[in-house]
Design brief:
single chain, mainly alpha
């Protein structure tokens, strides 16, 4: 420092972008997927498909900027899901398949 100024003031500042974590995450996912059975993979594909639908509708998830109460939303979604499941069970019973 000279007179309270940094030595590199005359040079353009180098802006470093954070590394994209996706390649490493894809490798980790592929390594895990390699150890799963076909039905387990089908479940993951179903989940990933739902994530993609959500991404298309609402944009990419960014946990640093997302201010939603995810715990509350999860309870709401689980409650909805349980409601639909119970309704499906009752419908099936009425049809005599239960």
């Amino acid at each position: 420092m000279r007179d309270g100024r940094a030595f590199h003031e005359d040079r353009a500042a180098v802006v470093r972008r954070p590394r994209d974590p996706r390649p490493a995450l894809r490798r980790a996912l592929a390594a895990l997927a390699g150890r799963l059975g076909a039905d387990e993979l089908r479940v993951l594909v179903l989940l990933a498909t739902r994530v993609r639908v959500g991404q298309t509708r609402y944009g990419r998830l960014d946990l640093r900027r997302d201010a939603r109460d995810l715990r509350r939303e999860a309870v709401e979604e689980l409650t909805d899901g349980l409601f639909y499941l119970a309704a499906a069970v009752l419908r099936r019973r009425r049809r005599g398949a239960g």
